[in-house]
Amino acid sequence: MGSGRKKRIMIACVTFETTKVTEPVDFYEINKLHIIHYVRDPSSDNGRIYQSFYDRVVSIVNKRSPRHVDIVEHNEKVSDFSSMLRTVLSIIRSEIAENPDCDIYVNISSGTSEYAAASAIASMMVPGTVPFSVGTSEYTIPTERIPDIYYIDGEPVGLTKSTFDPRTLPSYSIDMPEEHLVRGLRILDEMNKEGKKTTSGKVITRLKDKNVWYRDTETSDPNKKSTQRQTEAVYYQRDFINKWLKNEWIEKDELRGSYILTEKGRIVIDTFYV
């Protein structure tokens, strides 16, 4: 860490996966790995199986990683949503308190569904945290063996044979982005794609045409048109540009001298109020 590079931290859950945890450690060049898993009785058959997967992940990371990785174990009930949310939030907050400039990556692909849901929500609650998923390019089970493992009496069943009763998850409020901001951002993007100049006056005109401009700034007095344009430019900066910048939805294109959407902004217009 003497190079001044940011400390990189990853949070993951281990049940029956190894590769989905170990591969991102090298991809993101992680320095510290928090592994959440659960072993209720280490002496039982189930306990030994779960522990073996955790031990294997630790072994792979220690052997393969070109750098030293601090591994922190968290033995928590991974099938309990509230426990997972509390655990992930606690890890994130403690790391930020210790090193405010660190990068925190949250792996939502491995572990239980309760962990995946809780870790995704925790990531959204703490700005700057980076949730990520890992897709499977190759499975350990050959296609021809799937009927032997996932079928019963010739019928597809899957890994689970029976379940406990469903349990509802606690509800947490995460605010939707304001509609006028998303629709206005989509208009800005459309104008950029059309090759239109995105001066404040031209964008405001389009916002009005699309009923996204909510300020009552119109005047019929020709002597006040100049004042109207100045007032609208101030409102456009305050109501749209400043908020888009704060949300990291746009950035300044220095070559064109105009604002363009960031990757985060593009995700927003592709997701909300479509």
Description:
- There is one protein chain.
- The protein has 274 residues and is an alpha/beta fold.
- The chain has nine helices and nine strands.
- β6 and β7 form a beta hairpin.
- α6 packs across α9 (263-271).
Keywords for this entry:
single chain; 274 residues; alpha/beta; 5-stranded parallel β-sheet; two-stranded antiparallel sheet; 45% helix; 14% strand; elongated
What structural class do helix, strand and pairing data support? alpha/beta
What's the helical proportion of residues?
A: 40-55%
> How would a textbook summarize the main sheet?
5 strands, parallel
Terminal Cα span: 44 Å
The mean pLDDT is 90
Quickly count the helices. 9
Strand content: 5-15%
Poorly predicted runs are none
β-strand number:
9
- Radius of gyration, CA atoms, in whole angstroms: 25 Å
- SSE order, one letter for each helix or strand: EHEHEHEHEHEEHHHEEH
Shape: elongated
The largest beta-sheet arranges its strands as: 3-2-1-4-5
Would you spell out the secondary-structure blueprint of this structure?
Elements: E1 8-13, H1 19-27, E2 32-37, H2 45-64, E3 70-75, H3 81-98, E4 103-107, H4 113-125, E5 130-132, H5 146-150, E6 151-152, E7 155-156, H6 179-194, H7 200-209, H8 225-246, E8 250-253, E9 258-261, H9 263-271
Parallel strand pairs: 1-2, 1-4, 2-3, 4-5
Antiparallel strand pairs: 6-7, 8-9
Q: What is shown here, in short?
A:
The chain has 274 residues and is an alpha/beta fold. It is 45% helix and 14% strand.
